[in-house]
Write a structure and sequence with these properties.
- With about 280 residues, the protein is mainly alpha-helical.
- The chain is about 60% helix and about 5% strand.
- It contains eight helices and four strands.
- It has a two-stranded parallel ribbon with strand order 1-4. It has a two-stranded antiparallel ribbon with strand order 2-3.
- It is an enzyme of class 2 (transferase).
- It is found in: Cell membrane.
């Protein structure tokens, strides 16, 4: 372990105010704007995909733009409610029992991706049934655009100076105002790159290059596996939440790893299911 003197950051934290702007007594946080930006960018991208019949089975899109517009409200509720409830249950239950008002302060601690995924999944199932849309097709279109939200969310984490990485002496290390006078991995940017940019490009290549949407569930499986592997990898550079620390007496196992590991099996199951269904149709 390098001594403290060796951990002084080479690259200072940009010190961006977490509050983007204020309207009277109302403070607009970058964190909230990140969620709005992620949903809007995802919505625009999803509308483009939904409008391209050639990408879908039988060259017919399973969802109209009007239905997609209606789904935005359902998705937003699933993301926000599921994400916040998931964070409370997985990461911050004790603190919120002591101070219940903390539960609605989404900029204080933030959101859980795994909770947001659960909330959005419930919203997708209910919406698909109500509108007679094949649920795997809806899963796929949402999975394709989720990296947009992940990218903006992780950038907001960086701006807030939260969820920072472990101590390091790499040249791009950053000293965070809340992380002590030491150099740390900017793990939020690692996640923005992997979960956001890289995963978005991989899924786009499958959608437009391999026509993967013609095999319902394939994109969903790849997304779930891709996110889980990215998250587990970055957890080796990310400081665990201080209220939890490392799990099971180790110096490496984190809650993020525990929650992400079953996703790999779930994603592989979705991929194999999609390929099996596609093979059955061809025969």
């Amino acid at each position: 372990m390098p001594i403290a003197a060796d951990l002084l950051a080479i690259m200072p934290f940009p010190n961006i105010d977490p509050i983007a702007f204020s309207i009277g007594p109302l403070a607009i946080h970058w964190y909230g704007l990140a969620y709005v930006a992620g949903i809007l960018f995802g919505w625009v991208y999803a509308r483009r995909i939904a409008a391209d019949d050639a990408l879908w089975p039988d060259n017919t899109s399973p969802i109209s733009r009007a239905q997609l517009d209606d789904f935005i409200v359902w998705a937003a509720l699933g993301i926000v409610l599921g994400g916040r409830i998931g964070y409370i249950l997985f990461y911050d239950l004790g603190a919120i029992i002591d101070n219940p008002i903390r539960a609605v302060q989404i900029w204080n601690g933030g959101m859980s991706f795994h909770g947001g995924l659960t909330g959005t999944t419930i919203a997708m199932i209910l919406f698909a049934r109500r509108n007679r849309i094949p649920v795997w097709n809806l899963f796929d279109i949402v999975a394709t655009v989720v990296p947009c939200g992940l990218f903006f969310g992780r950038i907001a984490n960086f701006i807030n100076g939260e969820l920072w990485g472990r101590l390091t002496d790499v040249p791009w290390a950053v000293v965070f105002p809340t992380g002590g006078p030491f150099a740390r991995h900017p793990s939020q940017l690692y996640e923005a790159g992997l979960e956001g940019i890289v995963l978005l490009l991989v899924l786009a290549a499958l959608v437009y290059g391999a026509k993967a949407l013609k095999s319902p569930g394939l994109i969903t499986g790849v997304f779930i596996c891709g996110y889980a592997l990215s998250r587990i990898f970055v957890e080796f550079f990310r400081e665990p939440d201080k209220q939890l620390g490392y799990l099971l007496g180790t110096n490496w196992l984190t809650m993020g790893m525990v929650l992400s590991s079953p996703m790999i099996l779930l994603g592989l199951w979705a991929i194999f299911r999609a390929r099996r269904q596609a093979a059955a149709v061809q025969h």
